[in-house]
Specification:
14 strands; Metallo-beta-lactamase, Chain A; homodimer
């Protein structure tokens, strides 16, 4: 097994960045890299001698600023990747549902999973799914900005739930220090949207949630629509 | 593959707790559980319907208080486990080098790895090693209290380095959000104690490090010598 998979945590926004690499060819991808931990990530990629092919976002984040634009300045061959719904001009590749990217012998398969934002994507690599803010551990993303829709989120999570039960779930965040889950666990134990929650109940439940806006939203969203370049 | 392995992070002390279970028999163990995240851990164990067999410590921690005594009140069949050098009266099982505990079809094999403290243990489960504060990611434990010894730490880490290169390393802490490593990586890239660092240089380097004492040391060490019972 030559797949390297490293969850990397950013404390301020409780975000998980994921570095994946084929350790035979050294081709690598990074998902949801954060500006605050960019130097850590660069050091790690360089140390392992990886060829960073793709800098991938699950969506345009509202709670932190991506390091994608800056990372690309360090790893000039890398391509910035988002879902096509986002219409992000700074992206090199805009993915549609079912599109595939490869790194070494591994493939990343794109799933459109709108709901938290309209442009949210999830990504499947082998036995793993990276669910962004769509499916969280025992929870799910909020739907009250950036084209969010509880109806769409419900359908997207049902789509994720068609993956095999043993698929490991790696979300973009966890606020309680949990690092991963599985499709089986979320179907069984996710009280927001497990197998026994129907769409109407879910939508009504999500739409009732009142949360403060993320502190950085007015900075992070425009910055992230420019792949983090506005920080320069 | 029915091994569940879940790293669980505690933010205040940047500690990793590890829950492992055989998902066929539901027998489980927990390594380095922390008082602050006990409710999370209890909820998770209960939700999965696990039979917690062993509550295991890599060592008597100085930076946080273990939840082991309290966990045992919730999971009364569980045994508290430490390395025998600690002479901890509240432990049910004191392990020596090479001792084995089983949970379902899996085994945990104990390695004495003194140095950070004199009673430090590492634990091997399949392709994973749980190194406590002995071997950290690109770093290692300090040696300036609780019978610490840089000479012993060097030898202990060399012992850990005899594990296969592909063994995954799960430490008790990481302060930069990294979650895991491998024996190969630490041999190659650990500047404190990689393959090219000889014992004399390592000892002199470690003994020169000046760090403040952990904030909680005067509370945590006596509490942990009583398995966390002093909190009651």
């Amino acid at each position: 097994m030559s797949l390297l998979l490293r969850p990397l945590f950013e404390k301020t926004s409780s975000t998980y960045t994921y570095l994946l690499a084929d350790m035979k060819t050294l081709d690598a991808i990074i998902i949801d890299a954060v500006d605050e931990t960019m130097q850590r990530d660069i050091a790690f990629i360089r140390e392992l001698g990886l060829n960073l092919k793709y800098i991938i976002e699950t969506h345009v984040h509202a709670d932190h600023i991506t390091s994608s634009y800056l990372l690309k300045r360090y790893f000039t061959q890398a391509k910035i990747v988002l879902g096509s719904v986002n219409e992000i001009m700074c992206a090199d590749i805009l993915l549609n549902d079912g599109d595939i990217l490869s790194f070494g012998v591994y493939t990343l398969s794109a799933m459109t999973t709108p709901g938290h934002t309209n442009g949210c994507m999830s990504y499947v690599v082998g036995n793993q799914v990276f669910t962004g803010d769509t499916l969280l551990i025992r929870s799910c993303g909020r739907c009250d900005f950036q084209g969010g829709s509880a109806e769409k989120l419900y359908d997207s999570i049902q789509k994720i739930f068609t993956l095999p039960d043993e698929t490991l779930v790696y979300p973009a965040h966890d606020y309680e220090g949990r690092t991963m889950s599985s499709i089986w666990e979320e179907k069984q134990f996710n009280e927001m949207i497990g197998l026994n929650v129907d769409k109407q109940i879910f939508v009504s439940r999500v739409n009732k949630i009142k949360l403060d806006l993320p502190k950085k939203i007015h900075v992070a969203v425009p910055a992230n629509q420019d792949c983090g370049a506005k920080k320069l």
